[in-house]
TrEMBL record:
Keyword tags: NADP, Oxidoreductase
GO molecular function term, any single one: oxidoreductase activity, acting on the CH-OH group of donors, NAD or NADP as acceptor
Pfam families found in the cross-reference section: Epimerase (PF01370)
Domain NAD-dependent epimerase/dehydratase: 13-214
Leader sequence segment: none
Keyword set includes Oxidoreductase: yes
Keyword Hydrolase: no
CDD domains: FR_SDR_e (cd08958)
Residue stretches in coiled coil: none
Protein name in UniProt: Cinnamoyl-CoA reductase-like
């Protein structure tokens, strides 16, 4: 049966999420074009190179999301693209425009690829949760978008990059009548995440205290994100955006547990003990994701 699995592309496979999506696809028998950006010889890149030596269905190449032709080459003969763009150097204001341009190039390259059937675009919950008075909104779901000016005012560059790049991708995908879904993940956790994905993790956590108090701080295991990516591709009825998280962080005990899991990125005072018992109201909703996982996508 694996012989019938089509060829797909993961770009950028050298990001933390991209690597786990790549592993998930290979485990299901897909032939994968792993396009990696020139971020230096990171630990993840070394692992992908080692995998290439033993995985018959893995083809590794380098691509630059600002070089349209290199993306065209990466997605050639592929029926799906799993887009995983993250700046390994962290996020400042200048990164916003670069990520938007990269997203546009990726979607346009897919539009020009005859074999392309679907784009799975990895975005973030931060593209939906940042605006004035979010605490007054009872339900925050896939219809919600972060406010650009609010993000600029608060210097939430990661959230702004994810908001604008996803909006640009959706606009172009609709214009080119491409089949696209987006996975809006919470804070991604997983094996050695503090070591392998430190700057992206800390960029996500800008404004963490406000997220926590407003009931919109959510986490998700990277294996679950990878599984949702594959499900979103394989389920023909999947459509639109999917909020992807498996736990809300809305008590002090859960916040302390999160901080401990991200050591040494986040450090707690020695012998810290939980003081409060307050439970903040959960505002995020992921009913749509649950339907996808259950097999009734939209």
């Amino acid at each position: 049966m694996d012989q019938d699995k089509p060829t797909v592309c993961v770009l950028d496979a050298s990001t933390y999420v991209g690597y786990w999506v790549l592993k998930g696809l290979l485990s299901k028998g897909y032939t994968v074009h792993a396009a990696i950006q020139k971020n230096g010889e990171t630990e993840i890149v070394k692992k992908i190179r080692d995998m290439e030596a033993i995985e018959e269905k893995l083809v590794v190449s380098t691509a630059d999301v600002l070089d349209y032709h290199s993306i065209l080459e990466a997605v050639k003969d592929c029926c799906a693209l799993f887009c995983c763009l993250d700046s390994q150097d962290g996020y400042e204001d200048k990164m916003v425009d670069l990520e938007v341009r990269g997203a546009i190039n990726v979607v346009e390259a897919c539009a020009q690829t005859e074999s392309m059937e679907k784009i799975v675009f990895n975005s973030s919950l931060t593209a939906a949760i940042w605006r004035e008075n979010i605490c007054s909104q009872k339900d925050v779901d896939e219809r919600s978008w972060s406010d650009q000016e609010f993000c600029r005012k608060k210097k939430l560059w990661y959230a702004l990059a994810k908001t604008l790049s996803e909006q640009a991708a959706w606009a172009l995908a609709m214009d080119r009548t491409l089949n696209m879904v987006s996975i809006n993940a919470g804070l991604v956790l997983g094996p050695a995440v503090a070591k392998k994905n430190p700057l992206v993790t800390m960029s996500y956590l800008q404004g963490a205290a406000q997220m926590y108090e407003n009931g919109v701080l959510a986490i998700v295991d990277v294996n679950f994100v990878a599984d949702v990516n594959v499900r979103a591709f394989e389920d023909r009825s999947s459509c639109g955006r999917y909020f992807c998280f498996d736990q809300m962080v809305n008590t002090e005990q859960e916040a302390v547990k999160l901080a401990e899991s991200l050591s040494p990125l986040i450090s707690l005072p020695p012998r810290y003990e939980c003081q409060g018992s307050e439970v903040y109201a959960e505002r995020l909703r992921n009913k749509k994701l649950n339907k996808l996982v259950e097999g009734t996508a939209c």
